[in-house]
Predict the 3D structure of the following.
Amino acid sequence: MRRFKSLVIAFLAFVTMSHAQTVSNPFLKPFDTVHGTPPFSQITNNGIEEAIDSGIEKAWAEVEAIAINPEPPTFDNTIVALERAGSDLNRVLGVAYPLMEAASNDELMEIAVRVSPKLSEYSTKITMLEPLWERVKAVYNKKDQLNLDKEDQMLLQNTYDSFALAGADLKGDSRERYKEIRSELSKLTTLFGQNVLKELNTYEIELEAADLDGLPENIIAEAAEIAKEKGKEGKYIFTLAQPTYVAFLQNSTRGDLREKMWRLYQGRNQQGEFDNLENIKKIVALRLEMAKILGHDTYASHSQQKTMAGGPDAVYNLLDNLREAYRPAQLAEMIRLTEFASETEGKPVEIMPWDYSYYNKKLKIRDYDYDSEEMRPYFSLDNVIEGVFGLAGKLYGIKFVENPEIEVYHPDVKGWDVVDADDSFLGVLYTDFFPRESKRPGAWMTNFREQRITAEGVDERPQVSIVMNFTKPVAGKPSLLSPGEVETFLHEFGHALHGLLAKGKYASTSGTNVYRDFVELPSQFNENYLYEKEFLDGFAKHYETGEPIPAELVEKMKAASQYGAAYACMRQLMFGYLDMAWHTITDTVSDPVEFERKAIESVAIFPDIEGSMTSPQFNHIFSGGYAAGYYSYKWAEVLDADAFEAFKENGLFDKETAKSFRENILEKGGSENPAVLYRRFRGKEPSIDALLKRDGIKTTKINQTM
């Protein structure tokens, strides 16, 4: 109880955020806390903005000192010095960015809009500092004579590329316009993400008891609790929070209500105060203009230079090959589902997007005797935490110990010490599982601090958070997860391991700081364990009886998982094609609605629905750093299926295979080229074979390497 009270006090101190000038800003010196974790109760909005401003000023002074250093440029006094510059700024940004996503408020959002152009200007000033660029080039031109190890070589290459790709050689008007574009994009992408969060929180559906047929008890209880809090006892208020939305579409017998929920969700951010359509047009136009200034025809050609794919041709090759492989299976799935729905309703049915999940679930119950809701009682959140943490123990020997001395930013959050098999300290993990209005939808992993070796030779261990939006415990019942939510947990935990197990010298080449189309490999690799009884046996027990999950239920889940795999693939391809379309334009876009329709027509599953769009809510590409990079989920899926084959061949928890995966993938971060790291682990090039096999796709297009 004492800990809970202290957490509440800390959280209230954070969200109220005094406007008074900060007398003792915690960001202005290293945190004097357990493991150097953020002292959230001392942090104010005003303090964040103040620390960013002072951090920029101090960091710029450090950068200028490197640029005017009278000593000849060396790897240490230029490249390493630049890597280590701005530690105070990095400390505040490492806290501010996660809070803006998971514990935000109107004032903090306003601060984000104010500081984003300042940060963009600071970054651009570094790139455009000619004496600094000349020193970087001087070191780079001597790289073959420097006898650098692989990580030093990567740091040098990345530093050089960061200047070259960001227009360091630009002159005159082009140089000034580039600065303006960077600043404008920073503001627009921040505003886009804030609009998505703000409008999502305005939507809800109020229902009567007679409207609840088919809905699971847990979301009914949550809806009743929300209604009660709003003074509408006896009513049921459903939000668009992800677990509620998914469960509603899967289970409500009322097609009219499913449609209403779907149209609300898919119709967001297209008009009114939080309209993102104009923001999209401005963002893609600015990205195109920036790419042209830098000598490229499209933004994708520019941004994909530092990826495994290397450019749009390889990306489209992957998307097209997967489309051709999966399209026949997806069409067959839809025919089968339509026939089933028609039989069920006793009349011809055209499957609409709000119907798919509902009939898909019913078909799986009929043909596979599988209902994902049957799995929830075996996936209480506490047990899943034990199982997911236990997976890391079985594979890598690491342990997670809850530490009540680690201060957190909300009462729902927990802090954990992460300890290696030899009892050495690996880092801190924060877990944040439940939705709230201050938190954006979805699931993600982020860092409060990156792993690195300091100038004093200290291994500064990482502080990582995983954030999700699971249904909260209600009415004495624990949070019970669906298989899809367990999969999400496994996914984000894979990212966390990538950060926590890092063994790099430099923050910029450590942990998840890898090529964008490689970063999803550890996360998607983890998802494979959901379908393995050997893994589930360790924790999946009925929350009331303690009965282990039945083997036949796991087999049903595995069998049912292949049905719908083609639909899931085509849906991901739709996102990939849409992203590429926006970022391979060569001229401005006047009609985003028509543009989106044409971009996805080759992978469209349903007829076009007026008023529904993906682009205005597509945070990944317009706010979240995945511009021209959404394909990377499919790219990494090919890698994860291929990597998991090694464990299936050698044993799901084979120590030697896990050791190789840890040493060559998880610990290395971005210290070497990912293609080299992957070949070192797997002993061969990846191909799409394992993915097609896992999804049960029969095709003549086999043995295709990437």
In short: Residues 575 and 630 are 7 Å apart (CA to CA).
